[in-house]
Amino acid sequence: MTDLIFVHGMFQNPKSWENWIGYFSARGYNCAAPAWPLHEGEPRSLRENPPAGLGDLHLAEVIASIEAQVAGKEHPVMIGHSVGGLITQIFASRGLISAGVAINSVAPNAMIDFDWGFIKNSAIIANPLKGNEPVLMDAKTFHGAFANTLSKEEAAGEFERTATHDSRNVLRDCMGADGRIDVDAPHAPLLLVGGEKDEIIPAHLTEKNFDAYTDAGSVTEFLPFAGRSHYICNEHGWEEVAGAALAFIERSARAPNTATASSFV
Asked: Which residues cross the membrane (predicted)?
């Protein structure tokens, strides 16, 4: 049975992977969704009582905690969202996983985009004037930036179910040395998924991320989904995204080495 590790991103925790765990478990995968440090528990409780030290959390600590979950597993597969997507890319480059799917991934190597949504949301989160003060997610911001393709009522329900507060330092570190990858080196098969309507990680930044990989001997694919927000893993049609991830994982071991980009699904 193949081990499959799900890695959440900022403002989420393992609760966000419940649908995917059910989907992949039913197809024979041994699934785990570890929480980042200070992200364990019910999202509502974490919002109402932010863990002490949350604002001091750094990317290196998150990576170390996920690496501990991978240690000892034989040829695990990883699916990550947002910062979890970057972690998936890092693990693929380090040879720690057999295949990876990075969804709406924070791009490595300080890649940026001039899309207004990207600039605005990145500036709000990484704001150096806020020091180590945690970013407190609220329902309005969650709808406008995170789940903008949902109705106000739907977004409010998903906020209640999955949203958490988070550390500015994690995103800051993604832009620094801890977020660097040698994109010219061989790596495990990697699928990069982008959401057309993502206000946080625009699909063309994900395509830029894909284009940065140069090793012709490694499997690299880019698959954008039309009409999807940053909340792509739980919005309407998430099963289609999960199905694409499953198809990639199942064919990656036998596929010829290639790099492909697709038009919007």
From this structure: none
Q: How far apart are CA 154 and CA 159, in angstroms?
A: 9
Among 168, 169, 170, residue whose Cα is nearest residue 66: 170
Q: Which residues contact 237 (CB under 8 A, 6 or more apart)?
A: 225, 228
Domain CATH for 137: 3.40.50.1820
One-letter amino acid for residue 33 of the chain: A
Distances (CA, A) of 178 to 61, 65, 87: 10, 14, 10
Give per-residue pLDDT as tens, 159-189.
999 999 999 999 999 999 999 999 999 999 9
Q: Which residue has the higher pLDDT, 39 or 263?
A: 39
Q: Which one-letter amino acid corresponds to residue 244?
A: A
Question: Within 10 Å of residue 69's Cβ, how many Cβ atoms?
Answer: 17
Residue 246: domain span: 3-261
User: Cα 101 to chain center, whole Å?
Assistant: 9
How far apart CA 170 and CA 192 sit, in angstroms, is 21
Q: What's the pTM?
A: 0.95
pLDDT at residue 258 is higher than 60: no
Residues 6+ apart with CB under 8 A from 100: 77, 78, 79, 80, 88, 89, 91, 92, 188, 189, 190, 191
Three-state SS for 1-38 is CCEEEEECCCCCCHHHHHHHHHHHHCCCCEEECCCCCC
Domain count, the chain: 1
How many CB atoms within 10 Å of residue 48?
9
